[in-house]
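are you around this afternoon, could really use another pair of eyes. what follows is a protein written twice so to speak, once as letters and once as structure tokens for the fold. i want to understand how the tokens follow from the sequence so walk me through it. anything you notice is useful, everything is just below.
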Amino acid sequence: MESTTTAQLKTIYEDLQQKLRQQATSASSIDQERKTEIMNLLHDFNDVKDAAQIVVGALANLERKTIKEMHLKYNLPLNE
């Protein structure tokens, strides 16, 4: 059986360390992309929610009711 020298072991160790660093960087990049995607989706959700509140407010004005009454009429959550 061939003996592995200290220099060879050091080279193998450094190669493995490099691969680990590359994988960690790749995983970090994927995590950041996912966080950005979630933030964009939350932003879109809030825009739609704001638009819905404007519509509910306009309907409340037309029907001369409070926004709370409109939420109850259309079974909308009161605490969001």
